[in-house]
Design brief:
The protein has helices at 12-30, 35-48, 54-60, 177-180, 184-187, 209-222, 257-270, 303-315, 321-329, 381-393, 415-419, 444-460; strands at 52-53, 69-74, 78-83, 94-99, 104-115, 118-126, 139-146, 152-157, 195-198, 232-238, 243-245, 251-254, 281-286, 332-335, 339-340, 362-365, 369-370, 398-400, 410-411, 424-429, 431-432, 440-443. It is α/β, with parallel strands linked by helices and 462 residues long. It has 2 domains: 6-102 and 255-460, Zn peptidases (Aminopeptidase); 104-238, Aminopeptidase i, Domain 2 (Roll), CATH 2.30.250. Strands 1-2-3-13-4-14-20-16-18 form a 9-stranded mixed beta sheet, with helices on both faces. A hairpin with a 5-residue loop joins β7 and β8 (152-157). The radius of gyration is 23 Å and the shape is globular.
Length: 462
C-alpha cells in the first residue's frame, strides 16, 4: 500500500500557498527557540485573530457562547486556544495537541567558573541528545532571569549578526586517539558540555579576572548579578536561522522541528476554522514532553482539565463535575508529534513499508512506545477508520508508520496521557530526518499537508 508523493498533486496556486506557509513557519522557528518564546508567539497570533484571555473572562464572570475564541497560558510555557462550537462541551472537544519544548543545553543555577584564563558556564542537557553533536558549533543563549524585585529580564545572545556566539570546545584530532576509541555515547560526557563565555581578563582584577570581566558585561548590559542566576532559565540552542534545504528548496533545515513543526501547523489550522465550528476545537501546546511531560507545565499536570472545567462553568447554566468528565471522555484528539522519517543512509534501522517517507504527507502512528509497545497509546481501529474517511474526503496526502524496527525503535508522546480521560487519541505528525539533532530536516509538503489534515479533523471529527 505505497502512499503517493504529495508534490505530484500541487498546481501553481498550491505551490505558492506552500511557500508562503513555509516562510511563516521559518519565522516562527527563528523567533521561537524556547518554549516561552513559542508560547509568546502563539498568544500574539491568537490575539491578532480575535482570541481573548480566558482568565479575563473568568475574572469578569463573562458567559461564553458558540463562536467565541479564548486562550489560556500556563506559566508562560504552555498555551491552549479554544474556539467554541455549536455542540455543548459535553459532546466532546476536537483537540490537536503538540509540545513546544525541544532538546537543548540548560545553564545550571550556579554556573560560572574560571579555569586557565577561560570562563565557562556549567550546564545540564535537556532531553534526549547525542552529546557529540553539540560541540564545536555556534550556540546562542535564550531565556529569562527573574530578579528579586519581581522583574523579568529577557536574554537573547547570539542571534543578531553583530552578536557574539558561544561554543562548547572539542578535542583536536591530533590528540584524540583515546577519545576516538570510545563509544559514541561516551565521546562527550554530560559534564563536558560546558560553554565558553570569555577569555579576556578585567584590568586590575587579580582574583578570577576573566570571570570578573564577563560578570561586568552582564551587569552593564542586562543589570544582573551573579546571584541572579539562581532564578534564571537560560537555554543554549543552535545559533542562526532556519534555511531552505536542497537545490529544489523542497525541505527546511532548522532547530526544533520536533515538535514545533506540528505546533505551528496546529496554529495555522485553527485559523482555517469556520466562524462557528460544529464542535469546540482546541489547540494545545504543552511543555516538558522531552523529559516525560512532568512538572506544572507538562501534560501530566491538570491545567488542560482545569481549563475545560472553567469553560464548562462559563458556558453552562449550572456547573457540574460530571459535565467536565463527559467533555473529556467524549473528546477526540490528534497527538501531533513528529515521526522518524525514513533515511536511506540508515535503512537498517527502519522497516521500510511501515516507515514515514518525506514528501508523502502527514503521518499517523497507531502506536509509539518501544519493545512490545511499552508506554504506548495504541489507537483503536474505529477511530482510525473515521480518520481515513476525513483525510480521503478532503484530498489530504497521508501515511502511516512505526518509529523504527521492532526492538530497535521507540519513543513516547503526550497521547497516552490524554487517553487516560477515555478520549480517542492517535499520534499524528510530520516526518523528520536527524530528529533531536541541533539541525533537523522536514519536507515543506508534509508541513502543508499537516495544516490541511489538522483543520479537516477539527471541522469534521465527531
Amino acid at each position: 500500500m505505497e502512499r503517493k508523493n504529495a508534490w505530484k498533486n500541487y498546481d501553481e496556486k498550491e505551490l505558492e500557498a506552500l511557500e508562503a506557509l513555509s516562510g511563516r513557519y521559518r519565522a516562527f522557528l527563528d523567533n521561537g527557540k524556547t518554549e516561552r518564546e513559542c508560547a509568546k508567539q502563539a498568544m500574539a497570533l491568537a490575539e491578532k485573530n480575535g482570541y481573548t484571555s480566558l482568565e479575563d473572562a473568568i475574572r469578569a464572570g463573562k458567559r461564553l457562547n458558540p463562536g467565541d475564541k479564548v486562550y489560556f497560558v500556563c506559566m508562560g510555557k504552555s498555551i491552549m486556544l479554544f474556539h467554541l462550537g455549536r455542540q455543548p462541551l459535553e459532546s466532546g472537544i476536537n483537540i490537536v495537541g503538540a509540545h513546544i519544548d525541544s532538546p537543548r543545553i540548560d545553564i545550571k543555577q550556579n554556573p560560572f567558573y574560571e579555569d586557565t584564563d577561560l570562563v565557562y558556564a556549567d550546564t545540564h542537557y535537556y532531553g534526549g541528545i547525542k552529546k557529540y553533536q553539540w560541540v564545536a558549533r555556534a550556540l546562542a543563549l535564550h531565556g529569562v532571569i527573574a530578579k528579586k524585585d519581581g522583574s523579568l529580564v529577557e536574554i537573547v545572545i547570539g542571534e543578531d549578526e553583530s552578536d557574539p556566539v558561544l561554543c562548547v570546545s572539542d578535542l583536536l584530532i591530533h590528540l584524540a586517539q583515546e577519545q576516538m576509541a570510545k563509544k559514541a555515547g561516551e565521546v562527550i560526557t554530560g559534564e563536558g558540555l560546558d560553554i565558553i563565555l570569555g577569555g579576556r581578563p578585567l584590568a586590575g582584577e587579580e582574583k578570577e579576572p576573566v570571570k570578573a570581566l564577563m560578570l561586568s558585561i552582564l551587569k552593564e548590559r542586562y543589570g544582573i548579578e551573579e546571584e541572579d542566576m539562581l532564578s534564571a532559565e537560560l537555554e543554549a540552542v543552535p545559533a542562526g536561522k532556519a534555511r531552505d534545504l536542497g537545490l529544489d528548496r523542497s525541505m527546511i533545515l532548522g532547530y526544533g522541528h520536533d515538535d514545533r513543526v506540528c505546533a505551528y501547523a496546529e496554529l495555522e489550522a485553527m485559523l482555517l476554522l469556520p466562524a462557528v465550528p460544529e464542535y469546540t476545537c482546541c489547540c494545545l501546546l504543552a511543555d516538558k514532553e522531552e523529559i516525560g511531560s512532568v512538572g506544572a507545565t507538562g501534560m501530566r499536570a491538570h491545567y488542560f482539565e482545569n481549563a475545560v472545567a472553567e469553560l464548562v462553568n462559563l458556558t453552562c447554566d449550572r456547573y457540574s463535575e460530571l459535565t467536565v468528565r463527559r467533555a473529556l471522555k467524549n473528546s477526540r484528539m490528534l497527538s501531533c508529534d513528529v515521526s522518524a522519517g525514513y533515511d536511506p543512509l540508515y535503512a537498517s534501522a527502519f522497516e521500510k513499508k511501515n516507515a514515514a517517507l518525506l514528501g508523502r504527507g502527514v503521518c499517523y502512528n497507531k502506536f509509539t512506545g518501544s519493545r512490545g509497545k511499552s508506554g504506548s497509546n495504541d489507537a483503536n481501529a474505529e477511530f482510525i477508520g473515521k480518520l481515513r474517511r476525513i483525510m480521503d474526503d478532503n484530498g489530504i496526502t497521508w501515511q502511516t508508520a512505526e518509529l523504527g524496527k521492532v526492538d530497535v525503535g521507540g519513543g513516547g508522546t503526550i497521547a497516552y496521557i490524554c487517553a487516560l480521560y477515555g478520549m480517542e487519541v492517535i499520534d499524528s505528525g510530520v516526518p523528520v530526518l536527524s530528529m533531536h539533532a541541533p539541525q533537523e530536516i522536514i519536507s515543506k509538503a508534509d508541513l502543508y499537508e499537516a495544516v490541511k489534515a489538522y483543520a479537516a479533523f477539527m471541522k469534521e471529527a465527531k
